[in-house]
Amino acid sequence: MPRIDFWFEFASTYSYVTAMRIARLAADAGVAVRWRPFLLGPIFKELGWNDSPFNIYPAKGRYMWRDFSRVCDEEGLPLRLPPVRFPQNGVKAARLALAGETSGWTADFTRAVFVANYAEQRDISDDETLRAILTEIDVDPDAAFEAANAAANKEALFAQVDEAKALGIFGAPTFTVGDELFWGNDRLEAALRWAKG
Amino acid sequence: MPRIDFWFEFASTYSYVTAMRIARLAADAGVAVRWRPFLLGPIFKELGWNDSPFNIYPAKGRYMWRDFSRVCDEEGLPLRLPPVRFPQNGVKAARLALAGETSGWTADFTRAVFVANYAEQRDISDDETLRAILTEIDVDPDAAFEAANAAANKEALFAQVDEAKALGIFGAPTFTVGDELFWGNDRLEAALRWAKG
Q1: What is the tens place of the pLDDT at every residue in B35-48?
Q2: Which of A43, A103, A118, B46 is deepest in the core (most CB within 10 A)?
Q3: Chain B (30-69) residues lying within 8 Å, Cβ to Cβ, of chain A
Q4: Statement: the pTM of the whole predicted model exceeds 0.90
Q5: Helix or strand or coil: residue B8?
Q6: In total, how many domains does chain A have?
Q7: B90: domain CATH number?
Q8: A187 close to B (CB below 8 A)
Q9: Whole domain around residue B187: which residue ranges?
Q10: Do A183 and B66 touch (CB under 8 A)?
Q11: How far apart are CA A75 and CA A42, in angstroms?
């Protein structure tokens, strides 16, 4: 079965849209998805940005929020703006999402965190929010946090960021099929076609 | 008849793709198009960029050329890379395109200039290239250059850039329907739907 890797960052707005639709589209296309949480912060820092480019460049930011609203509307996705802050710190959530790969709850957890951020104005950097989300998806919060905070898992997340950099990833969501990159929620369909050859 | 404004910059890669497909899609949708040449240089300068962001950020640039090639492939558009330089200086072409509005040759001229830049590796800042293009589309080059270089036309191009800034435009192609902005070739369909209400 062909596969695409879905690279996402929990602070990223358009990653929310992709997270909510990729399972359906990939299933229809007969393509498997590997969910790859990573962090944009270290990548942006190398580009000279200490904040989201949507904050650094106000015209781009104003446009993004408007476009994001329209896209959510078209996809029928709930949206409540503004989030508690932008960008939210997604490090803890990314560690959890990565730790969930072994037991197979990464996708469910990821969707729930994006909904918490963009549809429910909850603070996704807060342990209590994350514990509540884990409980909602029937995952034991204590065990999940223990796995997430293990040194090997933290290192695995850094390795994931390094791999993203090596692939040339500079934004989220990004899809990879081998070395082939597709950037942006609106490239999901093209990435799926590419994976099918 | 509903209308969209198509804001383009002759140096912009994705503006080539839009220029080649917008007339067909707009006709199918029953939407009129106003072709609005403008310059990104002065807008980028205000963002602190003295070059294309695709040159300033190499990872973004590498990705763009690859994605641009794939998109041209999907659209069946000829492409020969690299162009004689990137970005090419499109000021003269923009003045000509604006001057062509009165006589109605802006769209034909614009398509021919984009083809010269991205499919024929010609220097679109060169008078001889532009004169040859005008001749190809049956426009008298002397008259066209005289109209393009008239003080009022040069001022009209600056006014067009100011209008773009006031609308919040920060890239090309951009589509506007009243105050509503759509950025990027892949937003053309959404802009046409919006125009139809």
Answers
A1: 999 999 999 999 88
A2: A118
A3: 47, 57, 59-60, 62-63, 66-67
A4: yes
A5: strand
A6: 1
A7: 3.40.30.10
A8: yes
A9: 3-196
A10: no
A11: 31
